[in-house]
Amino acid sequence: MSLTHSERPLYEVKAGLFKGLAHPLRIRLLELLADGTERSVAELQRSTGMEPSHLSQHLSVLRRHRLVSSDRRASHVYYRITAPEVAEFLAVARRLLAAVLVSDAEQFGRISELPELRP
């Protein structure tokens, strides 16, 4: 299936969302914000143990892909997810992860069915 010229930009935006999610620390940050509570950069740093410069880079990626927004108050910056759908997406992804892990565990349990190997 090839994309028409008019379809391509929509799929590029969609792919950008997935790029924004394509790092374990960004997923962790989103999970920390998924309850809808604002968190300061200091709180996020304490929760993740990330270096300030790395945290800033990951938050910048999430902002660029519009998954989080920020608000500066005095000398503190606070972050929040941009929409409840972000939290819903994380919940669906977690259910999918659980299904994959169960499947992997079942496969691992069948390893004894393989023929014996002699070194």
TrEMBL record:
Keywords: DNA-binding, Transcription, Transcription regulation. It comes from the Bacteria. Signal peptide: none annotated. InterPro entries: ArsR-like_HTH, HTH_ArsR_DNA-bd_dom, Metal_resp_trans_reg, WH-like_DNA-bd_sf, WH_DNA-bd_sf. GO terms for molecular function: DNA binding; DNA-binding transcription factor activity. Pfam families: HTH_5 (PF01022). Residues 6-101 form the HTH arsR-type domain. PANTHER family: ARSENICAL RESISTANCE OPERON REPRESSOR ARSR-RELATED. This is Transcriptional regulator.
